Amino acid sequence: LRVGGLVRHHRLLVPGAAAACLLLAIPASAADATPGAPGVGDSYYPSYGNGGYDVSHYDLRLKYQPTTDRLEGTTTVLATATQDLSRFNLDFALDVSEVLVGGKKAAFTATGDHELEITPAAPLDKGRPFTVVVRYHGTPSKVEASGFTAWLRTPDGAVAAGEPESAWWWYPSNDHPLDKATYDVSVAVPDGTQAISNGTLQSTSSKLGWTRYNWRSAKPQATYLTTLAVGKFDITKDTTASGLPVINAYSKDLGDNAGAARASVERSAEIVDWESTVFGPYPFEALGGYVPNVPTGFALETQTRPFYSPRQFSRGANASVVVHELAHQWFGDSVSLKDWRDIWINEGFASYAQWLWSEKEGEGTAQELADYTYASYPADDPFWTVKPADPGAENQFHGAVYDRGALALQALRNKVGDKDFFAIIKGWTAKNRYGNASVRDFITFAEKVSGKPLDELFETWLYTPAKPAASAAKAAAV
Ligand code: ARG
Ligand code: ZN
């Protein structure tokens, strides 16, 4: 009572006092400032991301020489301290030559294979914006962190693409989807070579034998969705019906896959237009795709401009993979996971988008594909032991996250009916636009929109390590 009385009295006498206090710059003394955590607390990847600050913008100014794989440059990070901060980490694996915090030289040391620990000359006050400049260089394909490199060499350049790891080998960051930021990526490459990144190409300029490409991605973007490709590309430029710039890039060295790659990726605008009618407004300012001459086989939903390995097109055109990666622009890129355990909110939805596309194209309805998928794995197949809503780090990209993940959405659609199902989908992308969400958040949201209890359905389809009874994914009581 006494304390409550005091607080009430204080508020009555000094309206707005609480707000005023927040604005006062109370310097953090060395005594109360503490180190930011070296990880953001992810359940699968405890050392990924960092605590103590929040990044708003990354500015990368790089130079890359394909013949030697030498990368050098400077990244400027704009951040705000979320605690009185005595020191903090960035996730990074290349060699650092200098760090400035707020324009002053800061001490730094590499701790672990992807941690750069930075101690500013003076502690940083909670709530205060600060700037970190990191100068660095390296040969990224030769740098192993966690036992590998996500920097892929090509005959004429290189590509940074990987999930969840890809930033460590080319820029220092708070490497977790919880801390999204905007980006300017400026890369100088030898004349005749191109540099591709996210968003829009603001300008190019050439001097002294080097051409600089200035890319901007203006909406919040997770670190692993920031990409760079250097090589010899054919670049196509167009605009969508609604006026969005479309930029696609194809390695000049795609061999027999060149035609199929173009026949697929050139449909990006058409696919985004269709997906917008199903998922809601496209969240970003540009779109496209790029196909570098990498030897790998995967694809990745790098923001605004997915990455496609040429092998995706080795059996002919593959619009389905384009549908998948562009669906991720809503599911994964705009609405990002909170914890890597929540990967189903990315992959389940991007996979279900492929079934919806098939339905639209008259190549089998989602229900037919669900029945086919369900029947393809016998009850004793290990496929059913992976729980899509918590697959474990080692199974993060297991087929079950994708296929059983899509089955869960078909089960939901059957349970709530098409009207509510598509209202859930559109409502979800609107509610969480540019944010983060968990599997639990989705279940709660679907229950709210449909007015139906859905715990049991999701328990069966996402959380049980066994094959569910077939009837659950069939048209059930609506
Ligand atoms: N999110 C990507 C996709 O399904 C998966 C990337 C898997 N990563 C990898 N290096 N194989 O489109
Ligand atoms: Zn995917």
Automatic annotation (TrEMBL):
Transmembrane segments: none annotated. The keyword Chloroplast does not apply. Keywords: Hydrolase, Metal-binding, Metalloprotease, Protease, Signal, Zinc. Residues 316-461 form the Peptidase M1 membrane alanine aminopeptidase domain. It catalyses: Release of an N-terminal amino acid, Xaa-|-Yaa- from a peptide, amide or arylamide. Xaa is preferably Ala, but may be most amino acids including Pro (slow action). When a terminal hydrophobic residue is followed by a prolyl residue, the two may be released as an intact Xaa-Pro dipeptide. Its cofactor is Zn(2+). It is an enzyme of class 3 (hydrolase). SUPFAM superfamilies: Leukotriene A4 hydrolase N-terminal domain, Metalloproteases ('zincins'), catalytic domain. Its EC number is 3.4.11.2. InterPro entries: Aminopeptidase_N-like_N, Aminopeptidase_N-like_N_sf, Peptidase_M1, Peptidase_M1_aminopeptidases, Peptidase_M1_dom, Peptidase_M4/M1_CTD_sf. Residues 1-30 form the signal peptide. Pfam families: Peptidase_M1, Peptidase_M1_N. Residues 56-225 form the Aminopeptidase N-like N-terminal domain. Belongs to the peptidase M1 family. This is Aminopeptidase N.
